[in-house]
Amino acid sequence: MANLQVSLGKIQFSNPILTASGTFGTGEEFSPFLDLNHLGGIVTKAVTREPRAGNPHPRIAETSAGMLNSIGLANVGVDRFIAEKLPFLKGLKCRVIVNVAGKTIDEFAEVIRRIESAGGMDGYEINVSCPNVKEGGMAFGTNPDVTAEITKKARQVTDKFLTVKLTPNVTSITEIAIAAENNGADALTVINTLVGMAVDIRSRKPKLATITGGLSGPAIKPVALAKVFQVAGAVKIPVIASGGIMNVKDVIEFLITGASAVQIGTANFVNPKISEKLVDDLDSYCEEHQINSIEEIIGTLKLND
Amino acid sequence: MANLQVSLGKIQFSNPILTASGTFGTGEEFSPFLDLNHLGGIVTKAVTREPRAGNPHPRIAETSAGMLNSIGLANVGVDRFIAEKLPFLKGLKCRVIVNVAGKTIDEFAEVIRRIESAGGMDGYEINVSCPNVKEGGMAFGTNPDVTAEITKKARQVTDKFLTVKLTPNVTSITEIAIAAENNGADALTVINTLVGMAVDIRSRKPKLATITGGLSGPAIKPVALAKVFQVAGAVKIPVIASGGIMNVKDVIEFLITGASAVQIGTANFVNPKISEKLVDDLDSYCEEHQINSIEEIIGTLKLND
Amino acid sequence: MRANTDTTIRLATGKILAAFSVTEDIKKIRISHRQTAECALPGQFINIKTSDSLFPLLRRPFSINRTNPAQGWFEILFRVVGAGTNALAQLKIDSDIDFVGPLGNSFSLPDKSQNSVLVAGGLGIAPLEFLAQKLTEEKLSAHLFWGNQSSEAFSYQKQFSRLNLKTFFATDDGSLGFRGNVVTLLERELAALKDENICIYACGPNPMLRALQNFAAAKNLTCQVSLETMMACGFGACMGCNVEKADGSGYFYVCQDGPVFDIKEIRIYG
Amino acid sequence: MRANTDTTIRLATGKILAAFSVTEDIKKIRISHRQTAECALPGQFINIKTSDSLFPLLRRPFSINRTNPAQGWFEILFRVVGAGTNALAQLKIDSDIDFVGPLGNSFSLPDKSQNSVLVAGGLGIAPLEFLAQKLTEEKLSAHLFWGNQSSEAFSYQKQFSRLNLKTFFATDDGSLGFRGNVVTLLERELAALKDENICIYACGPNPMLRALQNFAAAKNLTCQVSLETMMACGFGACMGCNVEKADGSGYFYVCQDGPVFDIKEIRIYG
Ligand SMILES: Cc1cc2nc3c(=O)[nH]c(=O)nc-3n(C[C@H](O)[C@H](O)[C@H](O)COP(=O)(O)OP(=O)(O)OC[C@H]3O[C@@H](n4cnc5c(N)ncnc54)[C@H](O)[C@@H]3O)c2cc1C
Ligand SMILES: Cc1cc2nc3c(=O)[nH]c(=O)nc-3n(C[C@H](O)[C@H](O)[C@H](O)COP(=O)(O)OP(=O)(O)OC[C@H]3O[C@@H](n4cnc5c(N)ncnc54)[C@H](O)[C@@H]3O)c2cc1C
Ligand SMILES: Cc1cc2nc3c(=O)[nH]c(=O)nc-3n(C[C@H](O)[C@H](O)[C@H](O)COP(=O)(O)O)c2cc1C
Ligand SMILES: Cc1cc2nc3c(=O)[nH]c(=O)nc-3n(C[C@H](O)[C@H](O)[C@H](O)COP(=O)(O)O)c2cc1C
Ligand code: FES
Ligand code: FES
Questions:
Q1: B76 found inside a domain
Q2: ipTM of the predicted structure?
Q3: Does an H or E element contain D89, and which?
Q4: Which residue in B64, B209, C34, D256 could disulfide with B56, CB within 3.0 to 4.6 Å?
Q5: Chain D: nearest CA to A69, how far in angstroms?
Q6: Annotated catalytic residue: which of B61, B92, B130, B262?
């Protein structure tokens, strides 16, 4: 057994394999398939102050090596989250990070505050990068000042681990990254989905009711790697990678490029056991390559001959 | 035979199938495979004032349903282009658009001016979106003021058809699109490649010598469609689509979404006959669906039930 | 609808025992997997990884069409339309097949006094055949109304001989049975049935389901319907498979709240 | 290097006549295509679409390994390493194979006075076997030095019996022939050859080619080398296959200026 533990500043994960928000429910949905406690951590589906029904049907479409979604942050709202989901999540031994979204700048901190009063979780992921909502979401995450303010207000209500999830749909992701770092983020999650679209040529309608949606899956892995490379080079806080990770080679690619942990998203739909399998595969990879601690390979990209 | 002719303002193409810059050489390379005159048009590899050797090896890598390239505008320079390539291109009956790049704002107009003095071609595509060069390229195309100035200067040296090729690597592509439109562009080409990266985990080196490169192929089609949708809704001039087009269904998707013509890129490497085949397939599609003129379907996306 | 009481959803590997061509583009695959054969209920489905590669990326859902618990296999019935079904059609006998299931809720069986009427449009026959199998096992008879674009798929009717079914066929072109759509046929024949205590079970394309919804509302008939939507996960995690509640109060999720719904409770999309 | 005089590059469809396993992961495929069999030259390659799907997306280049113009077929030899070669290995006899070719320049044959020395590392044998076939047809003899990681691939040596070759083997572990790398073996044996008028033809991994480059420079020997790089198009359109010129003045393109180069003219990468 290699040492798979990774330390992201104030928080440690037993291994770098987390699950990505919105692709793993609150974990419970995956209990039939795997032992959640083997994972490094779970990131929950986005929680907002009010319950949200989400966007109209149809919400998903498949593309080449990818998928589009326009779920639109459907969730039961923070109060029911606390009542119905928190007890289960508190029983887990793996890390649990709550993904938090909001329509207004203040809503993010408010959601965190309520969860904190209910005992809190291991950390929070600030989702300023959802492309599927009209108010808030990506509109916040493309603006460094707004990102800064949301981060600062969230920082005021919790001492827990705080990661800000960045959108790739910007001219300069490093500018947003630095705004989050300077305002108290402990880490950055890179990246959320790319804005994409598909058309059904028979009906001549967009395949999503919202016209455009968020592109995820292996198709976006090269973009995610480039963004992780750029962000890791621009900030001092750790980076958590998300985007197209399907197998252990992908995990290693992101770690080498500078990510301290990774999130498994779309792959959970393709193989609901994949996140746990990746922990095992990572261990085997380390054994095979005589890597004692997974931290040895983080950020080891070789740039010159 | 359906009428495949499309009119893009001051220029008409016998059909909407063009080839994308950098994926079709100067056309001559594809003569063994197809009759160039059957195409709507050819867009040449980028031409710069000085010859350019391009970037170091390795320059290409494959990704899931996509490829990365960092060619870096390798070309013989405008003078040799005029001496060696123009005579062949002038002999063609299809439209020929010259893709033009530059390190400085003035270089674009200078390249066009020299080609115009040599008799000119049917039109020019201003490449302010190449992610693979340190100077110019995407740095220009992410800035609306610079895009505006380059377009304006190009407009001063030619009355021919002028399309500005936009990068998707921006927060607001419509802002750049409008800058080009307001300064004399006759059309917009949407999109150039996305910035992406890949890592060889054995050597721990980036798969491209330049670390990041441009992502193309079916993986990016959803992003291209979303950008075409956004740009077509924001400007009055026609849009030429580029990004992940592999088959006739893809062509139809882009036309419905609002493109007046399309460019075939990476697909030329997969099947060197594909561009000509798409002209035939488009004709068959129209016959089957009782479409008399291909212009009938442009921009017919249905947004409400 | 009956809630799924057997909570054991599995990521399973079955083996392909046999593959049949019903017509040129309609195929049937027999999959050996004892637990699924034993515990699956009519209306439930499985979510199949049709290819090892990234193309297609997502699983594809298929209704359980028939089970043989004694021999430990079940079957699915599908039409070859795109990448996923093409890949499925190419799988060879004896090869492994990777699926998640059984998923979703199931049809509520009628009580003994009720008369079951099954209404299928095209491949909508898939889950209804499994229901007919259960009804036959319970010594209940049923009427099947099956509509298709042409008579082609009806070579399939010999499959029904083992079931306790009275069949009525409709084709768009009248090449077999009634000429016109299956709901019109149902309307006509139902008068003859002279029996108000009926329970309709339906599966088919949305235009058919909408017609049925209107008909059932007008006649005040109970109707359970199995729906299809795009799905990513199949087990309630992605929130991708929403259908609008009839009262406009939000959404059901087809993979979890369905695929079987009371036709009164849902809005049926174009 | 000989420039390609037959300019007829084709997008062609061949048929797979036979498939052999040389070792567990080294395969040979025989492809029926008369024009290619007749006009291909040693050193040339074809660019194969290994799968109908988008995975892998790009074609994969393979050297022509052997031709039989009389019977209208040629062969390729490959190691199963990734998506493309896996797909190739699964192609069935009689199925179609879609390729572009023949591509690239070719080895310049020696003049009658020259002694040919072929130096292969691993699958670098692929184009050199075709060269040996031509030399044999021209009634010229040659020496072959073949290095491999282990003795496994040498089961292949019976293939050489039809060729006019004197063979020298090297393995990393000494399990067959010389223990060590093939360039060291060449160095040792060349002294014995006592013949300065030799012409080296080489193909193999870059570390081997670099060693050979140094050796050839030191001894002032002429050496033609066949290079491999990533390729997209294979015929000079994408500019993706560059290698640096030795004098630093720019790049050659392997698919067009090569794959065969004078070893003095190129920089060999890590
Ligand atoms: C709960 C559930 C149960 C299902 N049970 C069955 C079943 O038993 N048998 C079966 O054949 N299918 C069934 N389906 C539908 C089945 O999943 C789709 O037919 C399948 O996803 C098509 O996949 P594909 O990859 O071949 O086509 P895709 O590549 O996904 O689609 C190709 C083309 O076919 C169209 N298309 C997609 N689905 C259908 C369809 N159902 N009919 C006609 N055109 C379509 C698409 O719009 C697209 O244009 C079920 C779906 C659900 C949600
Ligand atoms: C002109 C030319 C001629 C060639 N002739 C032959 C030939 O005759 N026989 C042959 O087997 N190959 C030949 N190759 C190389 C062949 O094209 C590659 O082996 C093939 O592209 C691998 O494709 P893949 O999809 O299976 O692997 P990929 O999925 O592309 O790669 C999988 C893994 O294998 C590694 N890899 C890629 N290529 C090689 C390699 N050559 N050796 C070891 N590891 C590799 C990659 O780095 C990657 O990690 C030739 C290449 C060129 C340019
Ligand atoms: C169906 C779906 C729902 C998602 N919902 C959320 C969400 O609620 N909050 C969030 O921050 N990201 C959400 N995402 C983005 C993922 O967490 C992840 O960042 C993205 O999908 C890229 O990773 P992948 O390619 O591995 O899927 C969602 C993605 C998908 C596919
Ligand atoms: C190898 C390669 C070279 C390219 N060179 C250029 C170029 O010189 N100028 C340019 O404007 N675009 C260039 N592009 C971008 C393409 O023209 C096209 O916009 C892009 O590849 C997206 O389309 P595709 O997905 O169909 O390939 C290049 C793309 C590739 C793959
Ligand atoms: S398919 Fe994922 S929630 Fe229903
Ligand atoms: S492979 Fe395209 S130029 Fe050589």
A1: yes
A2: 0.96
A3: helix D83-90
A4: B209
A5: 22
A6: B130
